[in-house]
Amino acid sequence: MIPIGYDGEVWFRYEESLMQDRVIVQRREFPVVRHTPKGVQLNIGLGTTRLVLHGSHKKFACATDAEARHSFKARKRRQGLLLERQLATVKAALVAIDSEMTDGLVPRWEARLPVIEVKVWTNRLN
Hints:
By secondary structure, the chain is an alpha+beta fold. It is built from one helix and four strands, in the order ββββα. It has a domain of 63 residues. The C terminus is likely disordered.
């Protein structure tokens, strides 16, 4: 069923998925249901719509393929930075726990990681 107001206009979004040992990047197309003063309402499937605001910095979908590619790259760069930070935090936690057990000796290459305070939590009431 074609949504009311659909005139052939579509917006684009790139998404990745993992299939066994491969990463697949695919372009999705969302039909425009209607234009509003604040944005564009898209049909995202199963009778659901989503409003994409004109002034929004992060958009769910983009009007052109080039914008959608740029948006995908920006999302993946940001995701990579967040995951690198999480990995650095994990490494620092492992160094912190080992350094507490070995009188504070931290390998030189690990010294640049964020310092994590080690706390021991118990369920005791005293």
